[in-house]
Amino acid sequence: MIGNMRTIFVVLGLVLAGSVVAEPSSTVVWDSATRHLVDSADPGRGAEVAEPCVACHGKTGTEKLRPNFPLLSGQTATYIYKQMMDYKESRRGHGIMQNFASSMTPQEIADVAAWFQSLSLPPAKQETVTEHAVKLVGKGDGPRLLPPCAACHGRKGEGAIVDVPALAGQNKDYFVVTMQAYKSGERGNDIYNRMRLIAASLSDEEINELAAYYAALGND
Predict the structure, then answer these.
(1) pLDDT tens, position by position, 122-137
(2) DSSP states of the chain as a string?
(3) How confident is the model at residue 6 (pLDDT cuts 50, 70, 90)?
(4) CA separation for the pair 19, 26 (Å, rounded)
(5) Banded pLDDT at 54 (limits 50, 70, 90)
(6) C-alpha dihedral over 209, 216, 211, 199, to 10 degrees?
(7) Is residue 181 very low, low, confident or very high in pLDDT (cuts 50, 70, 90)?
(8) In degrees to the nearest 10, what's the CA dihedral of 44, 106, 162, 185?
(9) CA 55, 58, 60: angle at the middle one, nearest 5?
(10) Which domains does the chain have, with CATH numbers?
């Protein structure tokens, strides 16, 4: 099923683009060397390097952050590594994050990613979860070619495929800001346009419902 979904993403991405673009959305390649770098990273060293990160991203997953700041506790290391490398190589834009990433080595980035992954996922929030959101997560929407969110992000929102983020307990405001950025094309570092395609098919109401669903799915 996952293999078929990847094929759909590739085809739809090419249809959306109209042609193969010259510049890739990301230069991160999950070859054996990159996987080894992330898998063998030292969370102890990462905790030291990540000290400045805590002020904006928190450490326990309970902090109230600004709308455009994600909670990173329990986040998958592969996702954090990819995003930081995208910032470092200007594949994803954000002045503050690009400044931090540009000064870090790939090893330091991997260590920081390992440290955040070692923390617990953010706790569940009190949110109203709609039946429609449950359906989108578990079954998707065939007529709109929307795959179930759980196929990539995991049944419990824990992140299931390499470089796909955990969503459980995520800052609801950040979720909405991010999905709107994908929807408008402001953010474009997703492989095969997969999140841009999905976000473009979702209504603003559905995005808000999914944000509430995942906020309520945090670590109990």
Answers:
(1) 999 999 999 999 999 9
(2) -HHHHHHHHHHHHHHHHSS--SS-S------HHHHHHHHT--HHHHHHHTGGGHHHH-SSS-----TT----TT--HHHHHHHHHHHHTTSS--HHHHHHHHTS-HHHHHHHHHHHHHSPPPBP------HHHHHHHHT-BGGGTB--THHHH-TTSS--STTPPP-TT--HHHHHHHHHHHHHTS---SGGGHHHHHHHHS-HHHHHHHHHHHHTTSB-
(3) low
(4) 17
(5) very high
(6) -90
(7) very high
(8) 120
(9) 145
(10) 32-118 (1.10.760.10), 123-215 (1.10.760.10)
CA distances from 151 to 57, 90, 100, 131, 164 (A): 27, 29, 32, 18, 11
Cα–Cα dist 176/166, whole Å: 15
